[in-house]
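Try this one yourself first.
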């Protein structure tokens, strides 16, 4: 199933994430695709808000920390950014398998670099710029 929407501001993308959260239940592996600045992290702000796991301002990019964790009664969210991960060895060191559990939702930026994640993902969300502040958000469910 594929759905598509267009947002016109970061705030609208956050609102879309909040709405999307209502449709997500663990366990899930979600790949977030799109260029730098496409809005992947912005979308996670909304998803975390939807789960009441964090407020938008507290969700920041895990580019350097690699994994951020947000807990809620409904799920534990792991926001992961693999932009800087280049080798299979570095990837293995992250031990993402240890994060996969019955109440976990993994939200992974740049996960498509690793074929295993591409194979195992449940949902893929692709963000694409449309002009300055427009973003096309396409969601594919397995
Ligand atoms: P990514 O994680 O994909 O690299 P970020 O979410 O960190 O991207 O950054 C997206 C940037 O684009 C933010 O500065 C955000 O304010 C801006 N922006 C402008 N319009 C939108 C929109 N419609 N949706 C999401 N972000 C937007
Ligand atoms: Mg990001």
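Now uncover the answer:
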């Amino acid at each position: 199933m594929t759905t598509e929407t267009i947002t016109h501001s970061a705030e609208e993308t956050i609102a879309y994430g909040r709405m999307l959260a209502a449709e997500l239940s663990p366990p899930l592996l979600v790949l977030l695709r799109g260029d730098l600045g496409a809005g992947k992290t912005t979308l996670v702000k909304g998803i975390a808000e939807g789960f009441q796991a964090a407020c938008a301002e507290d969700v920041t990019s895990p580019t350097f920390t690699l994994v951020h964790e947000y807990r809620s009664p409904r799920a534990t969210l792991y926001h992961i950014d693999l932009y800087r991960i280049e080798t299979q060895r570095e990837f293995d060191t992250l031990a993402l398998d240890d994060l996969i559990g019955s109440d976990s939702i993994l939200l992974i930026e740049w996960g498509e670099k690793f074929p295993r994640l591409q194979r195992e993902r449940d949902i893929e969300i692709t963000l694409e710029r449309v002009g300055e502040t427009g973003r096309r958000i396409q969601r594919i469910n397995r």
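Discussion: The longest strand covers residues 123-130. The radius of gyration is 14 Å.
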